[in-house]
Amino acid sequence: MVKQDGGLESSRVRQLWHLLEPLHAVLYYAPEAFEEAAAFGYATEERWPSYFPYRAAPLGPVSAEQVASAFYSFSPRMVAEHIDPAWKIATPEALLAARMSGVDRAYRAIFADRIDSPELAEAAALARRAAEATNTAGRPLAAANAALDWPQAPHLQLWQAATLLREHRGDGHIAALLVAGLDPVESLVSFAAMGAASVERFESRGWSPEEWASARDRLVARGLVHADGTATEAGRELRRSVEERTDQLAAGPWQSLTLDEADRLVELLGEFWVAVLSSGLMPSETTLGIGKV
After folding, report:
1. What are the tens digits of pLDDT across the range 166-220?
2. How far is CA 38 from CA 42, 52, 95, 97, 173, in A?
3. Domain count, the chain
4. What is the four-CA torsion angle of 163, 62, 87, 169, rounded to 10 degrees?
5. Domain that holds residue 38
6. Residue 246 and residue 181: Cα distance in Å, rounded?
């Protein structure tokens, strides 16, 4: 197993992401968060009308073009559909408060009496230390979240740390995609070609069938994808290099923990990860490829 600059093995860096990702992403699926969004007037029949303003709120009232750049893999049309009206419905400041309230209520429902447990407080302290060690240069979403004040409650600190670390990793992932020469839609087509998720799941990012087919044709011309949409060996190798580089770029914050502390955090997070997944809120298939690549 490869170690990142003498610190954690890449497999441990990836494992910590796997454990923290659902703790962050519950914001986009919890009924409590939808209720907070609905109180402003956002539609809640699907998650996207609240997803985009909730996730973009740390950036401030930025344009759809800026959000599309930061989120990368979403169709600019889809981003504009939800961001253009977003700041007219609620300010980013109001949304930041709403998302914290939604997470507070969701975590209390999911974790029940474990919300005040010493194990959760210990996990929050370790995750926060890693989050505060992030280098946010060149990482717009990580920098925006790092500038936010920390909440007082340990369970909210855990969510904020998970969010900052997730966006730090995501910013690095975009850098890895750029190095690999994969544009936003190509990044999805190439990942679908690996079996990371179904094409239908990736289509939720808003690209038209014509745009998807054009990206596939470009990847076929590069020898990365077969005509049937499956990855060639060169395509698999390129995507593996993207994931490896992403792990490398995500490793920095974890150097703030000792190996024993990182192991302890993995141990502590387990029950809360299980609780979130057992809640039934999270989708059975995502576009992240967790556990598949």
Report:
1. 999 999 999 999 999 999 999 999 999 998 767 787 888 999 999 999 999 999 9
2. 5, 14, 11, 14, 32
3. 1
4. -10
5. 10-278
6. 14
